[in-house]
């Protein structure tokens, strides 16, 4: 067997360990600063760091709405007894509406419509219904017109046609104002004039119309969508000027001033059915052509609303009861429109007293 190595003495091992420790210490002193470079150290967060907010043009999506739980089924209730069907109001349709002029609001122009509280027909209204009315021959009457500082003329043109038809035109012209005209067409019967259509014109242009549909018993209008029932003896804003003298001729024999009245329904282009009631105020004698006196009946229709007109008519008793003079007063201006016959007076009737 080979001989085993002899272990080094103890003092030699201690010297070797001390030398090794010294070498390591010298390396640590030299390499210490460079070693720190390669150390990984945690970077502390900056104090009070604020989050960065980035704006985006896209709107945030709404969170989905949770679906509510289905309600529990309600207990069955007994069905009520069936009720009869009620009539439904007719559906409103868009129609052209002609606005009333500023001096006569539509809601206040209906105050003179006949109602349950209206007085009953007078004895004159009932008397003329018992005998046929007679229409006069052709009239072409001119009037001098005055309203405040404005002056002008008016004309009443009555033309009976064939087959009991007629055409009546009522025109008013004032300086500095629009020319107004109303043209009525229809038939003549035992009850007087029966208008079929009346057209209102301004400056020669058709503005509005009233249609009296006698086959249907209704009155319709070109502007308002209102449809009204057609009463007996109904007139328009032109035909009343002839219907009134025809009614007066039938009942004037027993007139008493201050007590006798005449009534007639009048329709306007605004969709109104007005009851015009005239009271016989007095017998008046006025100066006529070339100073000759003219005997007249003065009839007055009083207004029944704040914007209604007061109408005064003087009927020439010995000249076919033609309107000899007219006056229309409408508040709030209170400037009456005065019309005085200037030409076309019908000849005196047979049996008339001498002037």
Automatic annotation (TrEMBL):
Region (Disordered) residue spans: 60-127, 335-355
InterPro entries reported in the protein's UniProt record: DUF3108
Biased composition (Pro residues): 63-90
Origin: domain of life: Bacteria
Biased amino acid composition, Low complexity: 346-355
Compositionally biased region (Basic and acidic residues): 103-116
Spans through the membrane: none
Protein known as: DUF3108 domain-containing protein
Organism listed in the record: Ideonella oryzae
